[in-house]
Amino acid sequence: MDSEELSEQQVDTVIDAVKSRYELRIVALLTGIGAQLKSQGWKVADEPYELTDSGYSWWITTYRPGREEVEDNCVDLRLEIAESRLYDGDMQTGINFGLEAVEWGGRPLGGITPYNFTDEVWVDARDAAAVEKRFRIVDQVDVEHLIHLMS
Q1: What is the pLDDT of residues 6-16, one digit of tens each?
Q2: Helix, strand, or coil here: 15?
Q3: β-pairing, 74-83 with 94-103?
Q4: Which of 7, 59, 97, 112 is most open to solvent, judged by the fewest CB atoms within 10 Å of its CB?
Q5: Helices marked H in the chain — which ranges?
Q6: Which long-range CB contacts under 8 A does 53-61 form with residues at least 24 apart?
Q7: pLDDT surpasses 60 at 2
Q8: Angle ∠(20,22,26) on CA atoms, nearest 5
Q9: Segments making up each domain of the chain, as ranges
């Protein structure tokens, strides 16, 4: 992709376009994971909700089965459009997708961020084919394995 420097507003526009293209699929993925959790006795608090105050991310809150619905029994699932400019600044329009399960108190239980900690962690948000290929990795997560890690 073109290596010219973009303004913050231009970068925001590029990332907003990715959000617009993937938001429904992200919500559908989290909703599907929530349905699978419910079928195994988990309580799912709400439909996925968006938190975009510090980037682009969607969440669902879940509670392990057979236990009281209290905070320390809570596991949050988050799917984020991670931006290079917020993490390491290596690529102005670099993005990745990350799905993570985090226990109350901040303990990570599992998840996937393709190519994390490698030179290939970021794809250019202006490259629709690369973004789609990256999203498919997260979209094909082994939900049963994720649930096992959350239990």
Answers
A1: 998 999 999 99
A2: helix
A3: antiparallel
A4: 7
A5: 8-39, 84-87, 128-139, 143-150
A6: 54/86, 55/80, 55/81, 55/82, 55/83, 55/86, 56/15, 56/19, 56/80, 56/81, 56/83, 57/81, 58/23, 58/26, 58/27, 58/30, 59/30, 60/30, 60/31, 60/33, 60/34
A7: no
A8: 125
A9: 8-150
Residues 110 and 102: their CA atoms lie apart, in Å, by 7
For residues 87 and 65, the answer to whether their CB atoms sit within 8 Å is no
Task: For residue 131, count CB atoms less than 10 angstroms from its CB and return exposed for 0-12, middle for 13-18, buried for 19 or more.
Answer: buried
Lowest mean pLDDT segment, chosen from 2-11, 21-30, 94-103 = 2-11
The rounded distance, in Å, linking the Cα atoms of 38 and 61 is 12
Place of tokens 């459009």: 81
Phi-psi region of 105 (alpha: psi -120 to 50; beta: other; left: phi over 0): left
Q: Residue 109 belongs to what H/E stretch?
A: strand 108-112
Q: Which residue has the tokens 């990745």?
A: 96
pTM above threshold 0.85: yes
Cα–Cα distance for residue pair 69/84, rounded to 1 Å: 36
For 32-46, how does the pLDDT look when each residue is reduced to its tens digit (9 = 90+)?
999 999 999 999 988
- Here the tokens at position 50 are 């968006």
Question: How confident is the model at residue 127, as a pLDDT?
Answer: 98
